[in-house]
Amino acid sequence: xSAEQKMRHLPLTVGLTGGIAxxxxxxxxxxxxxxxxxxxxxxxxxxxxxxxxxxxxxIIAQFGKEFLTADGELHRAKLREMVFSDSSQRLRLEAILxxxxxxxxxxxxxxxxxxxxxxxxxxxxxxxxxxxxVERVLVVDCPLPLQIQRLKSRSQLSxxxxxxxxxxxxxxxxxxxxxxxxxxxxxxxxxxxPQVLALDRFYRQLQDTLHLSTLP
Length: 216
Fold this sequence. Notes:
single chain; alpha/beta; Rossmann fold; 54% helix
């Protein structure tokens, strides 16, 4: 915890991450139902590339007007296919978006002094750990075959693109080795609720302990 967080009693920051289709959105929603603020990197990224936003202008300047739809929106599917087939292009896109996402998250966290903790849902938290600093890392985990099954059931991604997306993320063992806490999501949503409730109690108690340690 930084000196500024101790002084201002900002919420404990819990970085929520996991592989694609591991269940991060469902877990985020369960925390939100408990009244916990959830700052979602994907949602921020979408807002940052709306027409008229500087990030969209920079993306088009770097990648070309062919990544705009006829309505002036970002052609997400076309851009996704391009960046996941070329890692250098993906890094160029991330260099545009991630600093802006981080800045927006920091601004939002500064407004949350009344909350014991907040969830920062960041799919590439561990891949970009030098950019995003959190106090706890919470990984939503499920076996790779189940990830692939879920992906195929909810999207029309080709097997090649699916493999490229998975290759851009940390492998499961590495991700688990970097976790402070893990939510097991191999059995479905009904098994998530007790895990989230237990973590809610834990994070509240942890923040209470940290807050007391800063008192004179």
